Every structure is written in C-alpha cells, then in structure tokens.
Amino acid sequence: MPEKTPADFWFDPLCPWAWLTSRWMLEVEKVRPVEVRWHVMSLSVLNEPRADELPEQYAELLQRGWAPVRVLIAAEERFGSEVLGPLYTAIGTRFHLQDKPRTMETLIEALEEVGLPAELADAGDTDAYDERLRASHKAGIDLVGQDVGTPVIAVPGADGEQIAFFGPVVTPAPKGEAAARLWDGTLLVASTPGFYEIKRTRDAKPEFD
Question: Is this model's pTM higher than 0.90 or not?
C-alpha cells in the first residue's frame, strides 16, 4: 500500500462551502491514498477584529457560531482528534442537509449519533475551551494568512513542507474521478513555487446532495 498523503483540513461547521469541500475530501480518501486530518477553525474568531462592521444578520449568525466549535473542541480534548471527522459529519448533516436550527438540541442529537456524551453540549455555553479553540484556529491561519475564510486545507508542497490554501470552493462536491482530478490539481499548484491564488466570482449557491 502506498504511503498516505496527509491533508490537514480546518473547518467551521457553520459554513456551507466548507461542508462541500469536506465532502469532496472524504471522496478523495476513497480514490487516492490520502488521510484527512481534521481541525477546528472559527468564523466567529476570524471576524472579531471587524465585529463592528458586520451586517446585523451575519453578526447574529457568528454569535450562534461559538457553540458548535466549542463543542467540537471539547470533544477533541476529551476523546482525541479522531472524533472530529464523525462529529463534524453529524453536525453538518443537520445544519446543511436537514436545515435544523443551530441550537443545543441539534448539537446533542449529533453527539448522541456518534456515541459521545450529550453533556459535551454544555461546552457551547462557556468560554472554558476558547483558548484551545483559538490555538486550533491560529494554527490554520498561520499557515495560510489572514485574508481567507473557511475551509483551509494544507497539503505537502514540492519539498514536503505544508502549503495551505483557502478552499477549493466548489459546488456540488465532486465524486469519483472528478474528485481525484481536483485533488491532483491541488497537489500540483501546491508544488509550484510562488503560486498563490486562482479565483472567480461565485454565481451558484451551495448545492447539496
């Protein structure tokens, strides 16, 4: 078996675009020798410096965004990083596919689905895990820079060093060989010295399946 290529993935479960990219990465694991290592970042933390400039509706969303990332960090602290992927899937399925409210009840449902104690949801109402949350967030942002959102993905570059990007942003999430080709392209640009950005304006909404 070939050695698996590590892909470090930072996500905030609030973001539908990060959700789509994460589903692509799960597909990549099926078609390429890749191991996704999940990490938490936070749009609430990211937007703190410009909190006074945000539209009211987005500011309210970010306020609700503290609880899910705190619960994820609490779960990781108690049970290890291997629980992040399944718990993210359980939370994201409810948020993005089932359109359930971003409430403690929904987080409890997700915790119970993956066999984690419901009392972990209590972490959402406390700042006890914020130091570790900020450290996890900072680890991703330090690799990619400040002018990004979620997701952040870090892959090996030409010399094996971690090269991080925002994205790829894609809808719907590619499957099969299409997923593999996008992954191959991600490694290609990461191995190109001085490569920074490809971008175009989004003209489609997130498309879930």
Answer: yes
